[in-house]
């Protein structure tokens, strides 16, 4: 169940496919396609990576009025991805509409998870910029409860928050956690970070790792190192 998802934050199809070509045919990693690649290449890149046998988390973080998100999710559902997401800040009504749009006529759908607070957001920025005057852990927990009430499968959060979310929403409620770095690695713009070993201890279900794998001198070895430590 636990797995490592590689964030394929590349600007082009060529760079993405040559990165994925490094991995052996019998071990296709679960990958995340985010805004950069999707906006550069469109839905075709999703179809192409899916055809190569990867599981895909399409990380487009939708946030709009409920009707718009519902219709957009309907379109994304047809891409046959494994996981999609939205911002819980869009309200419970938006999350319910998203789920409706995502569900296919036969009742199947990709997993739907909600971003609570971005792992790049600190307590200070949340208070000063977003004007949310509560402790981060409580805000994340409240957003997770709203997502669960709307029928979603889990949340994107920091590994540091995973145990608390499982305690309030149950162990089946998924925690997908970016902000993971190898010990001694560069945090970059991430604020609330931890290691794969620690994320496992903290009960994350999936860790999302981008630069520590994609920018490593040997990305396949870095991926295996993360899998060994976490999965
Ligand atoms: O390179 P790095 O490991 O920081 O990549 C983390 C990935 O997870 C990025 O693609 C980023 O957009 C995504 N993400 C995040 N924090 C969230 C949600 C998604 O870092 N709360």
Outline the structure in words.
The radius of gyration is 17 Å and the shape is globular. The model has no long low-confidence stretch (mean pLDDT 95). With 231 residues, the protein is an alpha/beta fold. It has one domain (3-230): TIM Barrel (Alpha-Beta Barrel), CATH 3.20.20. It starts with a strand and ends with a helix. 43% of the residues lie in helices and 16% in strands. Helix 4 links the parallel strand 3 (56-62) and strand 4. It is built from eleven helices and eight strands. Strands 1-2-3-4-5-6-7-8 form an eight-stranded parallel β-barrel, surrounded by six helices. Residues 7, 9, 34, 59, 115, 118-119, 156, 178-179, 188, 190, 208-212 line the site of cytidine-5'-monophosphate (C5P). Cytidine-5'-monophosphate is lined by residues 7, 9, 34, 59, 115, 118-119, 156, 178-179, 188, 190, 208-212.
What are the key terms here?
binds cytidine-5'-monophosphate; TIM Barrel; alpha/beta; 8-stranded parallel β-barrel; single chain
Radius of gyration, Cα only, in angstroms?
17 Å
The residue fraction in helices comes out at 40-55%
At CATH level 2, the architecture is Alpha-Beta Barrel
What bound compounds does this protein have? Answer: cytidine-5'-monophosphate
| Estimated share of beta-strand residues | 15-25%
Which fold name corresponds to the CATH topology? TIM Barrel
Q: Which segments are poorly predicted (pLDDT under 50) over 5 or more consecutive residues?
A: none
Number of helices: 11
- Average pLDDT level: 95
Total E-strand runs: 8
Shape: globular
The N- and C-terminal alpha carbons lie at a distance of 8 Å
Which CATH class is shown? Alpha Beta
**Considering the protein shown, what is the CATH homologous superfamily?**
Aldolase class I
Read across the widest sheet, the strand sequence of neighbours is 1-2-3-4-5-6-7-8
């Amino acid at each position: 169940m636990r797995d490592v998802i590689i964030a394929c934050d590349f600007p082009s199809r060529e760079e993405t496919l040559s990165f994925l070509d490094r991995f052996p045919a019998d071990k296709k990693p679960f990958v995340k396609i985010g805004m950069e690649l999707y906006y550069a290449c469109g839905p075709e890149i999703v179809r192409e990576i899916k055809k190569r046998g990867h599981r895909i988390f399409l990380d487009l973080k939708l946030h709009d009025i409920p009707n718009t998100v519902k219709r957009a999710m309907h379109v994304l559902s047809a891409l046959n991805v494994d996981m999609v997401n939205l911002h819980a800040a869009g309200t419970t009504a938006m999350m319910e509409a998203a789920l409706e749009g995502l569900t296919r006529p036969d009742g199947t759908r990709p997993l739907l998870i909600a971003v609570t607070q971005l792992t790049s957001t600190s307590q200070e920025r949340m208070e000063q910029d977003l004007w949310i005057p509560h402790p981060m852990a409580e805000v994340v927990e409240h957003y997770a409860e709203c997502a669960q009430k709307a029928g979603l499968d889990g949340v994107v959060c920091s590994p540091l928050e995973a145990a608390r979310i499982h305690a309030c929403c149950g162990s089946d409620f998924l925690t997908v956690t970016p902000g993971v770095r190898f010990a001694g690695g560069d945090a970059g713009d991430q604020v609330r970070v931890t290691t794969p070993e620690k994320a496992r201890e903290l009960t994350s279900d999936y860790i999302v790792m981008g630069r520590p794998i994609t920018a490593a001198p040997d990305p396949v070895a870095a991926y295996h190192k993360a899998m060994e430590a976490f999965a």
